[in-house]
Amino acid sequence: MKTFISAISQKEFPINEQIKANTIRKSIFDLIIKDHPNFNRKSFIAVSELNLYRQKYLSTYLIKEVGELTSLEKDVLKTIQDGEIISTNDAQTDDDSEYTIGQRLADRVAAFGGSWKFIIIFALFIAIWIISNIVFLVNKGFDPYPFILLNLILSCLAALQAPVIMMSQNRQEEKDRERAQKDYMVNLKAELEIRTLHEKIDHLIIHQQEELLTIQQVQVEMLEDIMKQLNAK
Fold it and tell me: What are the TM regions of this chain, as residue ranges (predicted)?
């Protein structure tokens, strides 16, 4: 198998990984020059080494645009380098087994307290309470008008229900923040992948243009040989 020596690492690589320096985008070429001043447009580099400098270029781009890289942006760069999918790795599941008993209870109380079922049941309970004390017990029952005990029960219920619902809402906000972070990471990775794809397409276009120029030169040489043969006859 044919091999070549990389101009920056002096290591041997298969010939199918060979990239000529004059096909590399200037922005990435300048990064290589900073680390390896002897590198020039006639040098050769391996695809794996070029990908490392592409990642370095993306990191530099992010730092320039948004300042110091956050942990999210570092995770995105790592997924690009490892070829991983963010939506698979960072998918958040809603499995109840991940939550504590208190969190699950808060969710159920909030779900029940915000439903028509709760409103209807509670309205029936209040109606039965009032009718029982006024009609059946002739306002001499366990809670005569103005229903002080009922007011006490309602106040206690409201005092307990409000913080439970707030706990559920706070946890829902945490879920929303996690989803927003994941969406940001997916969008950022898409943008960086597109930039990398542009680099690769530019390389392919330049490589194809060189191949076409070579083919044209060969064809011109063949035509010249044919013309020489015809002139000689």
Answer: 118-138, 144-167
